[in-house]
Every structure is written in structure tokens, then in C-alpha cells.
Write a structure and sequence with these properties.
Two copies of one chain form a homodimer. With 393 residues, chain A is an alpha/beta fold. Chain A has two domains: 5-46 and 294-389, Aspartate Aminotransferase, domain 1, CATH 3.90.1150.10; 49-292, 3-Layer(aba) Sandwich (Aspartate Aminotransferase, domain 2), CATH 3.40.640. Helices cover 37% and strands 15% of the residues of chain A. Chain A is built from eleven helices and 15 strands. Chain A has helices at 15-29, 49-62, 78-90, 106-112, 131-139, 183-196, 262-273, 279-288, 291-318, 341-352, 378-389, and strands at residues 36-37, 100-103, 122-127, 143-148, 167-171, 199-203, 229-234, 247-250, 256-257, 260-261, 322-324, 330-334, 354-355, 357-358, 369-373. In chain A, strands 2-8-7-6-5-3-4 form a seven-stranded mixed β-sheet, with helices on both faces. Chain A has a four-stranded antiparallel β-sheet with strand order 11-12-15-14. Chain A has a two-stranded parallel ribbon with strand order 1-13. In chain A, strand 9 (256-257) and strand 10 (260-261) form a beta hairpin. The first copy, chain A, is globular.
Chain lengths: 393, 393
């Protein structure tokens, strides 16, 4: 019996436990101080009424023999997949219902998609980035090539001719940097992938936060992308589904590699190793895409985006370099005075009683940077900015 | 870019599409005939009131800022893991809350658990069996050794000294055969695994159907099992959760291989590639384990078991050999007159207007056998047995 020894190569992440430890220490020393958390990566506003109503109806259906639902199709009910198609159609993108796969969230699909690819593909991953991309590939023993985000490329790395790889992760709007690729930049990636028959795994979990109509909210807005990209979307941040669990992944029919349809491979993976999302949750997700639902979730997104704007305005005023904050709930700032990520964490905690997330937690190239998030309460965000303005950096 | 070429080795299953085609043909020829489906592998009774009430409350909580829940622990809320521990305690089995992992169902976990094992382990799989065991191992390119179920071993194969392998699947009560291992038989498997440091993947999805108090409902009722077995449970058939999606997997702390804790490896897999089960569903699952919930689901299980008993009694009376039907919702019968699985399918459809499932669909050793299920309506089961009694085999 041999275990998968690749698991032993994973680094334990002490990021959030170290944050908790430091906050506890501070609190023991200063029990009277009000700490404001701007590190939170989870939504705080409740589910919108359209979703709550739909789920109440679905729960009642499940308790009635006439309307009870047993197994559904693993890839999701047609009513929800059609709703996703309609949502794409509004962006000018036509996709077929069988190109849509409903899942319990982008995190699951981003990890599980690797099952359909050979382990000896070379994988390109931006640094800094959402740690799941790295860990899931270490687990499979794949070779990873990092491409660096930095101040010069605004944390939006692009390929050059020499870049070689089979699979590339792109997250836009990015977690943790909040940076968003333009159409022109995404076209460079698509052309690069088409030329090499590489596959782009496009993490679009934050697309609903994009305010600027010129920015792409789907990779399929770029010509040729259907032949080289899989897109992962989520209702977690869009509609407050972090605890309700529903996402969707698009695998276009055009996407073929080694003479095989990736759509069919993924269908086979999902029908074999997954049993679908709860009917109740799918009805809640369907409600998100109704006219009423879209209006209600927009109010919540606007609330978070306004929070982000308040943070961004303050940093601009103080002359602190940052990305994100306009089309994303994340603000990624350069630590003032060349402080390291953890030095700035301590500085902010002890001088402003604000907790954020050290950039080094998202990769080596995150050193010297820091993530703030817009998911908090308005009055806390405002108060935090007052404290930051009063601080001498 | 290389795809996972193991996927190309998977056989497409035409079982259920071929059944549908044959039923359609029959219906076109005999539009007036009432067909009774005894092939259905899905529950038909609705969720019990305790579960429906709990989920309504949880939906309301999700719509209120004060009680809203975002991300939960990937391995499940403590309230549900504790409820599972209490359920085990009633069986005389003490497990720790951190040995319990809540999931979206046994199918997902049975597939995903393979991630923590090296691909060059030898896997032992009974034939006939639930097809997921075979397909998930083909996907990973593992060597599979089949052990045969047959009339002589009552479809409960046991290891002999010569049997060599690293991972073995045991499903008891079995799908599709309905056969249940005794304590003495499971002890043979546990001793075999302990001696070789093999790991047993024990699929216990149908444990709640066991009526005979002498039969084990968990592998952990066998001494030593915590050092060699992972147990997969599900609320799908137990509580009608096939469309609600919740299961749980137990990975004991004692279970170590290659100096690594399988509990820690699985925790790492789940925290990296999974984001937990919906809060609403976990509250529904918690309600299953309350006194009221357990009483309500028992009524439903009794209904299915009584259906199974009606079928079993008829087959006994007719002298048809079968397993299952007493401690399981499945009845696995030997096709009369040495008919093949598909010959008997046609015979039953055209003579009795009954649809079942050909045994060959569950593996080569299922040829000549046939599965009936007890998930239908009582009056249909009774009417089906009248038709079978009137038929000359």
C-alpha cells in the first residue's frame, strides 16, 4: 500500500492560524481596543429575498410525494443550465445547455478538472495567486512554472514567445490582487494558447464585480477562446453563496485535445465521481438569474464595490500603490516604506487596529504586498479609513 | 497538452439507455399495457417532516444578516459531525468528531478518496458491483483484480491466502446483490487487510436497511477495523437524500500507511478541493439524527423493506434463487431456466410488463442474474408479484 507521496510535498499553510495568533496576542495586550477586520474573504450580506423564497418553495416540494425530487442529472437541472445560458447571452456569448456543468462551487471544479489531464503536462501559474491552483497540481505531481506578477505589469503577467506550457491558470478579476485583464491582454493569452494547443483554465469567480463595461467579464468574449479555454464561475461572491454552494463551469464543444472532446471527458468525470448539486440549491441559483434576483444581487455587489471604492480612494489620496478596488472586492497594496508583508501586518494591527492579509500568503511574489477586502460592514470600512488617514506611514 | 488517456479505456455504459430503448419499443407495440418499474434505484418517498422543518428554518437563517452563514469548515459543521458520532455511539462505536467528514454523498467520496493513494496500488473489486468502483480506478490507471461473486458464496466473496492487493472495496449490504456480510465474514476481511497493511474501502450506504441485529451495520464493529478501513455512509437511501445530497465518511486516526495519517491526507484533500456541504443541507441532515427524525426515516425504510419482503416471499414460493430482500432494498435473482440477463429482461417485460435491471450491467459475473428494487409504490409491487405468480417460467 502506497500513499500518494505528492501530498508530502505540500507546504502547510499557517497563514490564517498565524494571523489568528497575532490578533489574539494583540487583544490580550489591548483588551479595550476595537479591531476592524479587512482581511475577511467571505461575504457578510445575507441571501437575497428572491433566493430565499425559491429555496423555501423547493424545500416544501421535497416534503411532498407529488413534487419530491430524487437523483437529478449530475451536470445540473436543465432549468438552471438554461438560466446560465441566458446570462451568457446577455454578454453576447452563445453557449449550449450541454456546455454548462453545475457544480458545488468553483473551488471543487478547479481542483477536479485536473483529473481529465495527464499528470505530465506543464502547468503555468501566476504568482501571487489563489493557493488552490498550486496545491492541486502538487498533489498530482505536475511540473509548475510560475509567472510573476509585479508593479511593472500591474500584477497581470502576459506570455512572451518563450513561455512554454500546456495548462495555464488565469484569474480575472484576480484573487488576491483585484487586477482585471483587458480584452487586448486576454487576446494575447488566447492567441498564445491557440498557437500551442494549450488550455486556459479561466477563473471568473469575481466577474460580477466588474463595473467598467470595456473590461471582459468572460474569456469567451475573446475570439477563439472557445477552442482553448474552460471557464469557472461561482455564485459564492456574486450572490452570497459561500455557505450555499453553487457554481458553474463551461466546457465548450469546440475544445478538443488529442482528438478528444474535453466536454465529453468532463461529463464522464462528473457523472462518475459526482452526483449533482442539491435540488433546493439549484432552485435558489435559478432565482439569482431572474430579473428580480439579478437586481437584488446587484444591490449587494454595489455595497461591496462602494466599500472597495472607499478604501481605494483613501490609498490614492495617501499615494500608496495598489491594484484592484474598482472592479473587484479586493485591494492589493504595496506595503509603505518597503515593509515586508508581515511587518506591515503588525504595523497596521498595532497602529490602526486593522487586520488584513499578508501578500506572502499568496505566493513568494506577494512579499511586500498586502490584501484588503471589501466584504465588511460599511461603518467599519469608513472607520478603518479614518484610522489609516490619521496614521503616519 | 496531453489528456488523461486512461479515460479512453472506460467502457461506455449503455445499460440504462438500452433499457429505455427496449421499454419504448414495447410501449409502441402495446400502448395499452401498464408497465411496472422494479428497476428504479432511486427513492420515491418524500423527505420526512423533521428534515423539511429543519431546512425551512435554515433557509430563513440564510436570509437574515444576524444568522447568515458563509463558508463553513470543509469537513462539515461540528453540530452534524457530533450527530454522526452519536449515531455511531448507539452502535457501540466510539469515534471522534475529527474522524468524521461530511460530504455531498458517498459517490463523490468513493471516487475522490483515491486521490490520497498512489496510482500503482493493486485494487481488489468484487464482481458484480456498483460500477463507480471500477470506473474511478480505470480513470487513474490502477491495476484491478476482480473477485467473483456467485451462487456458491452467496455473492459474498472472501479472501484466501493467495489474494494479493493494496485496496479492497466491500459494499455491505451490497449494491446490486443485496447480500450482507456477517461479522465472522467481515473479520476475515479485516484480518486479511491487517496482515497485508491493505486498506478496506467499506461502502455502508445501505446500513440502515439491516433488520437482523446479528449483522454488522459498520465495519468498525469488527475488532481491528479502525486500523485498516475507511467507511462511507450516505443519507441518500437512509433518509431520501438522493436529490438533497449529504453523506459522511469516517477515516479513523489509527489508520496510517507509509508513516502517514490517512485522516490528515483526506483532510488535506477535502480542504483543498472541496468547500463543504450547504449549511441548509447540513441542518436537514442533523434533523435526520434526532429522535423524531430517526423515527420518521425508520417508517420510510420499513415501507421499502416490506416491499422487498413481498418480492422475496414470492421468489421463495416460486423456488427462484436470490440474495438480498431481507436486509436490503435490492433483490438479486438467478434468471430462471438459465436465461441470460437480457433474455430475462425481455421475458419479464413481455410476459409481466415488469422492468428490472439486467445483472450483466454490474459486471461480467452478473450475467444470468437480475436486480429488482423495493423503492416503488406498494400497490405496484403487489401487482407485479401477482403478475409473476401467474407466469409460467
Amino acid at each position: 500500500m502506497k500513499i500518494n507521496s505528492n501530498y508530502l510535498k505540500l507546504k502547510d499553510s499557517y497563514l490564517f492560524s498565524l494571523i489568528a495568533k497575532k490578533v489574539d496576542e494583540f487583544r490580550n495586550q489591548h483588551p479595550q481596543k476595537d479591531i476592524i477586520r479587512l482581511g475577511i474573504g467571505d461575504v457578510t450580506l445575507p441571501l437575497v429575498p428572491a433566493v430565499v423564497d425559491a429555496m423555501h418553495r423547493a424545500v416544501s416540494e421535497m416534503g411532498n410525494a407529488e413534487t419530491f425530487k430524487g437523483y437529478g442529472e449530475e451536470q445540473g437541472y436543465a432549468f438552471l443550465r438554461q438560466a446560465v445560458c441566458n446570462y451568457y447571452a446577455k454578454k453576447g456569448i452563445m453557449i449550449d445547455i450541454d456546455e454548462v456543468f453545475i457544480s458545488d462551487g468553483a473551488k471543487s471544479d478547479l481542483g477536479n478538472i485536473l483529473d481529465i489531464f495527464d499528470t505530465d503536462n506543464k502547468v503555468i501559474i501566476p504568482d501571487p495567486v489563489y493557493p488552490v491552483y498550486v496545491d492541486t497540481n502538487i498533489m498530482a505531481g505536475r511540473e509548475i512554472i510560475f509567472i510573476n506578477g509585479n508593479v511593472h505589469n500591474n500584477f497581470l503577467p502576459l506570455p512572451d514567445e518563450s513561455l512554454d506550457g500546456d495548462i495555464v491558470y488565469i484569474c480575472s478579476p484576480n484573487n488576491p490582487t483585484g487586477a482585471v485583464y483587458t480584452r487586448e491582454q486576454l487576446k494575447i493569452w488566447v492567441d498564445w494558447a491557440l498557437e500551442r494547443q494549450a488550455v486556459i483554465l479561466f477563473d471568473s469567480a469575481y466577474e460580477a464585480f466588474i463595473q467598467d463595461n470595456n473590461l471582459p467579464t468572460s474569456i469567451y468574449q475573446i475570439p477563439g477562446a472557445k477552442s482553448c479555454a474552460i471557464e469557472f464561475c461561482s455564485l459564492s461572491k456574486t450572490a452570497g453563496f459561500t455557505g450555499t454552494r453553487c457554481g458553474y463551469t463551461v466546457v465548450p464543444f469546440e475544445l478538443e485535445r488529442s482528438n478528444a472532446s474535453l466536454n465529453k471527458l468532463w461529463l464522464r468525470r462528473q457523472t462518475t465521481k459526482f452526483n449533482g448539486v442539491p435540488y433546493i440549491v439549484q432552485r435558489g441559483a435559478e432565482a439569482v438569474f431572474t430579473e428580480t434576483g439579478l437586481k437584488q444581487i446587484k444591490d449587494n455587489i454595489d455595497y461591496y464595490i462602494d466599500n472597495a471604492g472607499i478604501i481605494a480612494d483613501t490609498l490614492t489620496e495617501l499615494g500608496i500603490w495598489f491594484t484592484g478596488g474598482r472592479n473587484s472586492p479586493y485591494i492589493w497594496l504595496k506595503c509603505p516604506n518597503n515593509m515586508s508583508s508581515w511587518e506591515f501586518f503588525d504595523f497596521l494591527l498595532y497602529n490602526c487596529k486593522i487586520v488584513g492579509t499578508p501578500g506572502i500568503g499568496f505566493g513568494n511574489k506577494g512579499e511586500g504586498f498586502f490584501r484588503l477586502t471589501a466584504f465588511g460592514k460599511r461603518q467599519n470600512v469608513t472607520e478603518a479609513m479614518v484610522r489609516i488617514r490619521q496614521t503616519k506611514f
